[in-house]
Write a structure and sequence with these properties.
By secondary structure, the chain is α/β, with parallel strands linked by helices. It contains eleven helices and nine strands. It is globular, with a radius of gyration of 19 Å.
Length: about 325
């Protein structure tokens, strides 16, 4: 399949992806229902037609991105960069100029894998923290794609030393931070007006090292081009109250990601049960800290957390490398 996809004109690849995504949704009613349910939690004001349409569009988007990545494999970097409209690169370069590395929070939105491989030619090799795929062969192939422009892939388990090393060496470290985690592994923030258990990894790294935080996203436009956006950097300063600082920064990151998702809801991974972990009766309301987040007195160290409470809810993995899994 990969060999066939690479030989096709890209416009045909994208159109085929949309059609296959529509078929995928029709053949997978269980996970389509999960996506619809998650959408209703985020957008209670939407009517059912809007919910169902967006849920199907999610399938169309991810099938399109999957085929696009297959089409991209082995192509010259210049050809990939020609597909991108880059915004805010000055934010990332300015943050890197401080010489202490940059933490870049990412989301399962658009095509984060494309942004990874095309950022390296713009600012130099970056590091990305990833959970290995369950299929070793697919994992090797995805790692090869991620590293094809010089990036460094760091597996989540025992990642902290490697992450700190890359920050000390002045690199960007990309971390996907938008999924549910077990209550013991994170804090509750407000996300779409609901308490959501969120990893504190990006905030904890910034507090530990003093490095800037530059959120980044990459969305697919209707004309087939990618819009890659960097920053602006989050404004933060340590108050000396670690748990409170951790909560505030984590909430700020969640708020940024919510804004992205609201702009292009059809490109976010709604098949993941984002609100699966719920606060206990003893957990303070996330609005308890300046109307946003709740701090926990014993937040986990970076990467002491396990993976999300369960793998992202979704249809069975296709037999080609997916656009990324908890990358």
């Amino acid at each position: 399949m990969s060999a066939v996809v690479r030989r096709l004109p890209r416009r045909i690849v994208l159109a085929t992806g949309r059609r296959l995504g529509g078929l995928w949704a029709a053949l997978d009613p269980r996970h389509l229902a999960i996506a619809a349910d998650t959408l209703r939690q985020a957008f209670p004001e939407w009517d059912d037609a809007s919910v169902q349409t967006t849920a199907r569009c999610v399938y169309e988007h991810y099938a399109t991105v999957l085929l696009d990545i297959l089409w991209m494999e082995g192509r010259p970097v210049a050809e990939l960069l020609a597909l991108a409209d880059v915004e805010g690169l000055e934010h990332l370069k300015g943050a890197l100029a401080q010489g202490i590395g940059v933490v870049s929070p990412l989301a399962h939105l658009g095509n984060w894998e494309f942004q990874g491989v095309t950022t390296a030619p713009l600012i130099g090799p970056s590091a990305v923290v990833a959970r290995p795929l369950d299929n070793p062969a697919l994992d090797r192939r995805l790692v090869s794609f991620r590293a094809s422009t010089g990036n460094i892939v760091i597996y989540k388990q025992k990642a902290l030393p490697e992450v700190l090393k890359n920050l000390r060496e002045g690199r960007v470290v990309g971390i996907v931070v938008d999924q549910n985690v077990q209550a013991k592994d994170g804090i509750f923030v407000r996300f779409f007006g609901r308490p959501a258990s969120a990893t504190t990894v990006a905030a904890a790294l910034a507090l530990k090292t003093g490095c800037p935080i530059v959120p980044a996203r990459c969305v697919l436009r209707s004309d087939g081009r990618y819009r890659m956006v960097y920053g602006p950097p989050l404004e933060w300063a340590s108050s000396g109250r670690h748990a409170e600082d951790l909560a505030r920064i984590t909430q700020d990151i969640a708020s940024v990601i919510e804004g992205w998702v609201r702009e292009t809801p059809e490109q976010w991974l709604w098949l993941h049960r984002r609100w699966k972990t719920t606060p206990s009766r003893e957990t303070p309301d996330p609005a308890g800290l300046s109307g946003s987040a709740v701090s926990r007195p014993a937040a986990p160290e970076p990467f002491s957390q396990g993976p999300p409470e369960s793998p992202p809810e979704g249809p069975p993995a296709p037999q080609s490398p997916p656009p990324g899994e908890d990358s």
